[in-house]
Amino acid sequence: MKQVEVETAPDPVDARLGARLAELRAERGWSLGELAERTGVSKSTLSRAERAEISPTASLLNRLCAVHGRTMSQLLSEVETEPPLLVRAAEQPVWEDRASGFVRRSVSPPHAGLRGELVEGRLAPGADIAYDRPPVPGLEQHIWVLEGALAMTAQDVEHRLDAGDCLRLRVWGPTRFRCAGPEPVRYALAVVLP
């Protein structure tokens, strides 16, 4: 029996995100090769992300945000329609990095002109995400653990946070977020541009 390959349409958010990434690259006049050199990501991966053939990982988006001078929330808000003042819980954009077990909810109504934003992060047991650089150097973060346990590493120091704990820091280099317990961890992340 002959197997038939079924093509599925790309996720609408991934399609809009891919188109925006291609626009940002074109605005700077960069080829895929130039962007690959700046991010350390292969040309084929960048091309597939722009064409929405793959759903970008958190690490990939972080690298792209760094070269484009945006936070992840800013980039994701750019693929939304006109930003509202109020976003109901059911309408808050959720993005999932299935490969790492990371789910990100943009809690704050998106607005490109504001310096602060609120994000909810969830990590499955065993999830471990490493970012090689901040999207914007000197980014201020307040990490408040709502449920579970989180191990957050910055400047080669690991901080263990349990439910109710809050860590404030400025991010200048690599960071790592790891679910530190047997249960999922849920945390609020307040991000403030320098």
From TrEMBL:
The keyword DNA-binding applies. The keyword Secreted does not apply. Residues 21-75 form the HTH cro/C1-type domain. Keywords: DNA-binding. It comes from the Bacteria. This is XRE family transcriptional regulator.
